C-alpha cells in the first residue's frame, strides 16, 4: 500500500516524539512518511530524507523535510513556525489527493500559535481540511475498539446548540456517517443510535420539544428510506456495554455528550476520524501536551491507533 502521510503538527508539542514512537511500533506493519522539520525530531532518530515516496526506507524514519526556521523549544510554541505547520497539512492533503499517500494522519496543532503566526482562520483541523478539499460539510467521528461516536454539533457554546441543531444538519450527519460505516469500516447494513438532546430524550415533551419537533421526524424520514436508526435515546443509558452491542455508531447532539463516553471508555486509544472528505484523515484524540513535551514520556497509543485505523480504512477502500 501507499504510505500514510503524517503532518507534523505543533513542533513544540508531543507530535514529533509520538510520531517516531508510533513508527517504531508499526514500521513492520505499514509504510509511513512524516512531513516536517527533521530538526524537531527526538535526538538520535534515524532519518531518511526523501523527495517522493518512491525512495522509502524500511528501517529509517522517512521524512519529507521542511525548514521551519527558528529552533524548537519543547513546551513553548513559536509563532514563526505557524506557516510551516500549515504547509505540512497542505502538503499531506496534496499527497493523498494525488495518490502518493493512502491516507493522512495529522498530529495535534496549537491554534493560538497558528493565529498569532499566520492569521489561521479556521476553528481547527477539521474545518481547514474541509476547505482544502472543497467540501461543504464534514463529520467528526471519535472511534476506538469499543465505540464509534459522532457529535452533530462540535465546537460551539452549549447555549447555541439548540439553534444550530437543524433537520438539515442532523440528516447530513446521519447520511455521512452511514456512508462512511459502509465504505471505510466495511459494515454493509449500519445500525446507528441517535441520542436525544434533552435529558431522558425529552420525556415525551415534558423536558424539551426538540426530539418531537425535529429529531424524530428526521429519523422517520430516513427510516422510510431503509436506514436502521435506533432512538432517540436518553444519552445516559446509551453507552454501557450491553447498549453499545446494539449499534455500530452513535450520533450525539453536542460535543461533550459524544466525547465523555469515549474518553471514559478508552482515553488513550481514541482516534479522531473526519468523515465526508474525499480522502482518509485520522488523528490522535489528544492535544499538544506542552507540559510533557520533550521529556520522552508521551504516550503514543492514540497515534498508533490513528495510524492503524488510517491503514485499515485505506485497505477497506482498496
TrEMBL record:
<keyword id="KW-0664">Pyridoxine biosynthesis</keyword>
<keyword id="KW-0479">Metal-binding</keyword>
<feature type="binding site">
    <location>
        <position position="281"/>
    </location>
    <ligand>
        <name>substrate</name>
    </ligand>
</feature>
<protein>
    <recommendedName>
        <fullName>4-hydroxythreonine-4-phosphate dehydrogenase</fullName>
        <ecNumber>1.1.1.262</ecNumber>
    </recommendedName>
</protein>
<keyword id="KW-0521">NADP</keyword>
<feature type="binding site">
    <location>
        <position position="200"/>
    </location>
    <ligand>
        <name>a divalent metal cation</name>
    </ligand>
</feature>
<feature type="binding site">
    <location>
        <position position="263"/>
    </location>
    <ligand>
        <name>substrate</name>
    </ligand>
</feature>
<feature type="binding site">
    <location>
        <position position="126"/>
    </location>
    <ligand>
        <name>substrate</name>
    </ligand>
</feature>
<keyword id="KW-0170">Cobalt</keyword>
<comment type="subunit">
    <text>Homodimer.</text>
</comment>
<keyword id="KW-0460">Magnesium</keyword>
<dbReference type="GO" id="GO:0050570">
    <property type="term" value="F:4-hydroxythreonine-4-phosphate dehydrogenase activity"/>
</dbReference>
<dbReference type="InterPro" id="IPR037510">
    <property type="entry name" value="PdxA"/>
</dbReference>
<dbReference type="InterPro" id="IPR005255">
    <property type="entry name" value="PdxA_fam"/>
</dbReference>
<keyword id="KW-0520">NAD</keyword>
<keyword id="KW-0862">Zinc</keyword>
<feature type="binding site">
    <location>
        <position position="125"/>
    </location>
    <ligand>
        <name>substrate</name>
    </ligand>
</feature>
<comment type="similarity">
    <text>Belongs to the PdxA family.</text>
</comment>
<keyword id="KW-0963">Cytoplasm</keyword>
<comment type="pathway">
    <text>Cofactor biosynthesis; pyridoxine 5'-phosphate biosynthesis; pyridoxine 5'-phosphate from D-erythrose 4-phosphate: step 4/5.</text>
</comment>
<feature type="binding site">
    <location>
        <position position="255"/>
    </location>
    <ligand>
        <name>a divalent metal cation</name>
    </ligand>
</feature>
<dbReference type="Pfam" id="PF04166">
    <property type="entry name" value="PdxA"/>
</dbReference>
<keyword id="KW-0560">Oxidoreductase</keyword>
<feature type="binding site">
    <location>
        <position position="155"/>
    </location>
    <ligand>
        <name>a divalent metal cation</name>
    </ligand>
</feature>
<feature type="binding site">
    <location>
        <position position="272"/>
    </location>
    <ligand>
        <name>substrate</name>
    </ligand>
</feature>
<comment type="function">
    <text>Catalyzes the NAD(P)-dependent oxidation of 4-(phosphooxy)-L-threonine (HTP) into 2-amino-3-oxo-4-(phosphooxy)butyric acid which spontaneously decarboxylates to form 3-amino-2-oxopropyl phosphate (AHAP).</text>
</comment>
